[in-house]
Design a protein that fits this description.
Bound molecules: zinc ion
Strand order of the largest sheet: 1-2-3-8-9
Largest sheet: 5 strands, antiparallel
Number of helices: 3
Strand content: 15-25%
Helix content: 10-25%
Length: 186
Amino acid sequence: MAIQPIRLFGDPVLTTSASPVETFDKELRNLVSDLIETMHDAPGAGLAAPQIGVSLRVFVWDIEDSDGHLINPSLDLSEDLQDGDEGCLSFPGLLYETERAFKAVARGFNMHGEPVTIEGTELLARVLQHESDHLDGIVFIDRLSKSERKHAMKDIRNSDWFGTLHEAGSQPVIKISPHGTRGLGL
Ligand code: ZN
């Protein structure tokens, strides 16, 4: 188990669709442990494998009343929507009001290959949607309106971390607190 560097927006792995997991082996269990450890260290409420540079369909989450991991998920969403702030560990310090479905049902597998269904509303639904998006190479600012996204891109260009791509073993110097997302780093 090891804490892995979190990839920041600008790293191509975050805009690449991830591959399905085909083998439920020890390597997969190690990936799940690394994700959990890295999420807790950040700290964040969720983390997807591409955020640590692994382009596989795996994510983890840990919020007040729910935690777990999901592999090869598919989502059913309610038509009811919710508003609320959302952040991402790959965009340190930035929060934007992001519209999401109020309820989500995620079907996938656990690390042993057994089918799992996770059903959530509000924050859990938001986490499931945010993390599933990561597996499709979609980041949360893609969910904003055109004008809000433009505003977000300006904030990102002005941030100290933007453009600092990770080399293995070298952490960028982040001057904005990565903890500034009020527990909404996903
Ligand atoms: Zn994220």
